């Protein structure tokens, strides 16, 4: 059961603020959805919380190596093209520029007000797109496109139109009613008029970074973003026909409190987005230099962060959102929720995705592709990225070729992250194995998990309980063959 101190503090804040809120929680549920709300066992979380991967890939990106070269990637693509059935593509385009720095940011970005740098970058980006297009000749059907960054809306309307036209020259895009075409926007720098242009340009899904609506918290992380600006962008997106609006929040930021987080959640619920991602702020200044500007004395302590996590889950599920997994929530009618119900949800470098059967091709500085049985990552600096393209070659800096064991474990971890269960018979048929024999050692490690009520094991399946869902990363780590082989550096966040 939830620790009474944490429970009473969170529920008191919830009750007090709910009485003052002018926008009561909305019940989005239209049809019966099986209960997916995780059970919050604070003592168990305290006991099992540890450093671990987020599993946006397996093997994780820190396992990529510079011994992986362009011919390795080209051979993988050739193998895919030789298959009788070509899978559709998911394209990711990385625009790294931002006009100002947010102190919490862990993205690969370039902070500059010199807009001419974007002109140079777009020229090189189009060179990479041409090289990838040539390589993928014969399998260029795209069902999913995502522009991320940085701030993709750093480039202006004309530059965006030109880039999209270039992509359409090189790839074949599914019609609007089938394709999922999303872009991350910064509400501080886009107007309702710009939102209308983005829809005309072909985007049909919008993702907004909010993080926190509280003025004090915004100042502490150097991201001043008035609520009215954000709401105006969201209204404009609905008015011009965007199919889905997603917002990002972060808990654990400096100067956040239960009261301020409660107010932000009420504001978010009132804004009624289709998807909500609530990330745990991981303070890792040894890896991310902007975080060195954050005053560690202003960060909430671990107990306060647990209160915030409980509050987020409680308020959003009470408001009708479905807990998808990790840190994602969605309306029951949203494609993300439907994809999970239909077994086609997947997890990739953008988080949870609705298009399971796609190859993920990524272009831009630092971008990571997942094609066939390999991962590749581009050069991380602009100079290195440009230099490789000046040589007329793909800017791949590192990657990894997956073994048969890697592919199997990737599927196992993906099934757990997305659907919280494993059907041994399906895995046996797909990989020609006897699951209980192949993973004999791993299954033996689950005894304490089962004793703590995190999962159940049978001769046919592994099923994660509602109590175990918050600790899904811990469960997946048991299947990670790379962990524990050597001392791990401090590169992971806490699992909760």
Written overview of the protein:
The structure is a single chain. The chain has 496 residues and is of the alpha/beta class. It contains 18 helices and 22 strands. The strands form 6 sheets. Strands 2, 5, 6, 7, 8, 9, 10, 11, 12 and 15 form a 10-stranded mixed β-sheet that branches. Strand 11 (322-325) and strand 12 form a beta hairpin. The protein is globular, with a radius of gyration of 22 Å.
Secondary structure elements and their pairing?
Layout: H1 4-20, H2 42-48, E1 51-52, H3 70-81, E2 89-95, E3 97-98, E4 110-111, H4 116-135, E5 141-149, H5 157-170, E6 172-173, E7 180-185, H6 192-200, E8 205-211, H7 215-220, H8 227-239, E9 244-251, H9 258-271, E10 275-280, H10 302-318, E11 322-325, E12 328-330, H11 335-341, E13 346-348, E14 351-353, E15 359-363, E16 368-371, E17 374-378, H12 382-390, E18 396-401, H13 404-419, E19 421-423, H14 424-431, H15 435-438, H16 440-444, H17 447-451, E20 455-457, E21 461-464, H18 472-477, E22 493-494
Parallel strand pairs: 2-5, 2-15, 3-4, 5-6, 5-7, 7-8, 8-9, 9-10
Antiparallel strand pairs: 1-22, 10-12, 11-12, 13-14, 16-17, 17-18, 19-21, 20-21
Helix pairs in contact: 1-9, 1-10, 4-5, 4-12, 6-8, 9-10
